[in-house]
Write a structure and sequence with these properties.
Number of helices: 7
Shape: globular
Low-confidence stretches: 136-140
CATH class: Mainly Alpha
CATH architecture: Up-down Bundle
Strand content: under 5%
Number of strands: 0
Radius of gyration: 14 Å
Length: 140
């Protein structure tokens, strides 16, 4: 395992999540959505690095979540992926749409994506035994 890189990615994930909430509070909803996606991507990649020593070079949250399930099966995570399929798709879209398109995210969009980011990170945190990110408050 690459502990230093795991810790670095996890720290960045926390920073992105914190900054997404800050952007939300100041009405910068596009940025809040983009940063929420980034937080989830980085957290999942840190988990995969911890579990298997590598992660796919992709921005697809669904693909990354499925990689987690391959090495660490979880009915809770499977349920989250199934129940929040549309939300996960929206979170993935924010990676491109919040930066490179004319689409404008609003308060409700940002609030939903931040909550979903916290839910995904909290779920994986519990799966890994990551006390900070698996804490119920991390779910939003």
């Amino acid at each position: 395992m690459h502990r230093g890189e795991v810790d670095s990615l996890r720290k960045r994930a926390s920073e992105f999540l914190y900054e997404s909430e800050s952007a939300f509070k100041s009405g910068r909803y596009n940025l809040a959505c983009f940063l929420s996606d980034q937080a989830v991507q980085l957290y999942i990649k840190s988990a995969l690095l911890e579990l298997v020593g590598d992660y796919p070079r992709t921005h697809s949250i669904r693909m990354l979540l499925n990689e987690i399930l391959k090495c660490k099966p979880s009915t809770e995570l499977e349920g989250l992926i199934h129940e929040d399929r549309a939300g996960i798709s929206s979170l993935e879209d924010a990676y491109i749409m919040a930066r490179d398109s004319a689409r404008e995210y609003d308060r409700e969009d940002a609030e939903a994506l931040i909550a979903l980011a916290k839910k995904i990170i909290g779920n994986i945190g519990r799966l890994l035994g990551d006390e900070l990110h698996g804490h119920p408050q991390a779910e939003g």
